[in-house]
Amino acid sequence: MSIDDDDDRVGYGKPPQHSRFKPGRSGNPKGKKRATRSFGTEVRATLGMPVVLTDSDRPRKVTTSEAALMRLREKALKGDSRSLDRLIELRREYCDENDTASEQVDEEDAAILADYEARILQKHGYSKAEIARNPIPSKRKRK
After folding, report:
1. Helix or strand or coil: residue 77?
2. Residue 3 forms beta bridges with which residues?
3. Quick one: which of 2, 6, 62, 105 has the fewest CB in 10 Å?
4. Crossing angle for the helix pair 64-77 and 81-94, nearest 10 degrees?
């Protein structure tokens, strides 16, 4: 038996010569398909994308989330109460409590802030007794 005869043999692990992979050619030319990204990954990528803002006649690159927070701040400073409420809510949720404890608020300012908070909460359907029991109400279903 010669070496050429071994190449012609067909069996387990020896496919026919015409169906064997050609040298230099991949058996999987398209390759593995990319995995789809989760929605959370898409949100993080979108909020991390840079955008160009014009600040004092100079272009400046910031992330999308930073630009959105800046827009929220601008609206709150112009008097939009919903934006102000949302900004305060974000501050409570994401800022460290040690930061707020270090700030000194005099009694008059504290009374003004407490009155404002009570009026906003009453406007959104919370009773005075409920506000007195729990100054920061949790999200609940309204009747």
Report:
1. helix
2. none
3. 2
4. 130
Question: Which parts of the chain fold into alpha helices (H)?
Answer: 3-8, 39-48, 64-77, 81-94, 97-102, 107-123, 128-133
Q: What is the pTM of this model?
A: 0.46
Phi and psi at residue 76, in whole multiples of 5°?
-65, -40
Distances in whole angstroms, Cα of residue 110 to Cα of each of 21, 103, 115: 79, 12, 9
> pLDDT, tens digit, for every residue of 83-135?
999 999 999 888 876 655 556 778 888 888 888 888 888 887 777 666 666 65
Four-residue CA torsion sign, 11, 17, 20, 22: positive
137 closest CA partner among 84, 128, 110: 128
What's the CA gap between 49 and 95, in Å, rounded? Answer: 23
Instruction: Give residue 103's identity as a one-letter amino acid code.
Output: E
